[in-house]
Structure formats: structure tokens, C-alpha cells
Amino acid sequence: MSASTDAKRALRSAARFYAVQALFQMESSGQTVDRVRTEFETYRIGAEGDEETWVEADLDLFRTLVDMAVDQQARIDQMTDRALVVKWPIARIDPTLRALFRAAGAELVETRTPPRVIITEYVQLAQAFFPEGRESKFVNAVLDHMAHEARPEAF
Fold it and tell me: Please, how many CA atoms are within 13 Å of residue 130, restricted to the half-sphere of its CB?
């Protein structure tokens, strides 16, 4: 694997991370997609400050994930609900997990990225957001179900 391939992968991973954060922020603050996207692109992605530096990201993927998660939210939430057990509808799960499922669902529905790559990437994000570890197994199971529904031809 070349350095440029690794760099592209890192930019795509960062875009997924920022998309989950942006979707979480939209839900928790009630801000519009345009406002949050602009904030991330102006003040976070690749920004450097006195205290911290934010990593660069694949802006096209970031925009696609955020916009499609919003545009396709009903469809993605329904897919997520079908993957969850009856006692745990999407409204009852952690808002960070909800944002993660929406970003992953957008990627499953709107991109050509192989489902296994998407699942692996978002399981790793779950591990970053929830280092205790229980959530990553849950995310893996839900995303596997969603991937089979969204792209049955890939399996």
C-alpha cells in the first residue's frame, strides 16, 4: 500500500469522524445542516489554533455523509430501527450512536464504498467514542444488518 493510499484512507476516516460529530451537534443543538457544515469546514477540519490542531479530512466525503444523512434520515432511521431489537428503537439509543448510524447509513446508501470497509470504519469510530468496548459489538451487529438490507448484492 502506498503512502498516498494511506493518506487518502486517513482523510476518509477523518471525514467519517467529523460527520458523526456534525450530525450529533445538529441533533443536540437544533442547528441547520448548512450552519453546522460551514462551522466544521471553517473552524474545525484542518484548522490550527493556539491550543489544538484539527486534522484534514476528505471534504467531499464529509459533505456527502452529512447531507445524505439529513436528506435520507427517515430511510436510514427506518433501516436502523429494523436492525435494533424491539425494546430499543432508535429514539432510545445514545445520541452519539444515532449520529454514527446515520453517517454509516448515508455511506451505505449513497456511496460505492464496500460495506465491509464501512462497517470496519464505523466500528473503529464506536471504539473511539466508547472506549469501554461494549458499543463496538453492538455497532458491528446493527451495521451488518443495515448493510445486508441496503446492499444485498454485496454479500
Answer: 15
Number of domains in the chain: 1
Cell representation of residue 90: 432508535
Residue type, 134: R
Question: What is the domain-level CATH number for residue 70?
Answer: 1.10.940.10
Cell digits of residue 84: 435494533
pLDDT digits (tens, 9 = 90+) for 1-41: 677 999 999 999 999 999 999 999 999 999 999 999 999 99
CB neighbour burial string for 60-77, b if at least 16 within 10 angstroms, e if fewer: ebbbbbbbbbbebeeebb
Range of the domain at 128: 3-154
pTM reported for the whole predicted model: 0.94
